[in-house]
Amino acid sequence: MKPSGRSDVPPFYVMEVMQAASQREAAGLEVLHLEVGQPSTPAPSGALAAASRALGEDRLGYTGAAGIPELRQRISDWYQERYGLGIPMERIVVTTGASGSCVLGFLSVFDAGDRVVVLEPGYPCYRNDLQAFGVDVLPLAVGHESDFRPTIQQLEAVGPVDGLVIASPSNPTGTVLPETVLRNVIDWATAHDVRLVVDEIYHGISFGVTTPSALAFTDDVLILNSFSKYFSMTGWRLGWIVAPPPVAEAAVRLAQSLTIAPPTISQLAALAAFDCIDELEDNVARYRQNRSVVLDGLAAAGFDRIAPADGAFYAWVDVSALRIGGRQLDSPALCSRWLDELGVATTPGIDFDRRRGRDFVRLSYAGDIAEIGEAMSRIATWTTANR
Q1: What's the total number of domains in the chain?
Q2: In the chain, fewer beta carbons within 10 Å around the N or the C end?
């Protein structure tokens, strides 16, 4: 049996880096992890306690396809508490991870043959999912000149399109879209009848800047979010979307067939995670410290072209000026050497930008500060010795 044509999407290269790192560890060799975009902390204590209780007391059967009403209402309350926004729970659909949010969201608002803009660099699964769904994906290159933010002039130059997918804060750049930029993009999308999807999965993790929700400026938007990052619950596979009522209803119908329901124990745990904000904010404070270590380490290594790391927990590093033995190494070769020679796992930019990604490396600073500090020290020493 041959695979479908729609399955012919590029691999998610960070998973291959993780596999190479795991093989190195299995051989008894040390690995310092800067490749993985997940918190090193477990789920908050209240979530763990709630899950433990549920194992002993709850039947853990199916829930409604949109999630348990208590969690949908608690997410609604979160928007009021965090943003001052009144979002009815009927517009909220709980999903199986942010990946499930992408699948349900994209299937709910885009049709095969639609023309949809995605930013490069950007999260590769947007592109891969849309491609698998038969959507015509139009990459829009953003770079240092605009702090990796889209401009209206760029959007206008693309021509007629049906959709636009953006993220704030962004993976891999850490770029946050300030209110003025977000408003301009929303106004452009409204004026051109473009269906707008905004990934807000890294909301809650920012450094000295505000992260306004697109919902503050329009109801005609699809929001993707998750419990993976700020709530530190990656393996619990739980996310949500916020959508206009007709789209939310469509997403529920799709979920009934695609997943039946999100994981029940994860929903019960997530409900309790909202009572652990102090613990979660401590995590953000740790990311802030880690960020300083990474930025200082990059400066010591001579890397001075870095995207604004204003949110999430990534540094997007331009390595094109680095010369080793008089020649340039592209990012896959550079990351391979860092893993083999230093025991430092990093992610080549080809995951996030198909055209320019060989000039960039993504570093994650979601892990342990001592491990991150040692990794940056090794990189600085290596680049100094090999230039």
Answers
A1: 2
A2: N
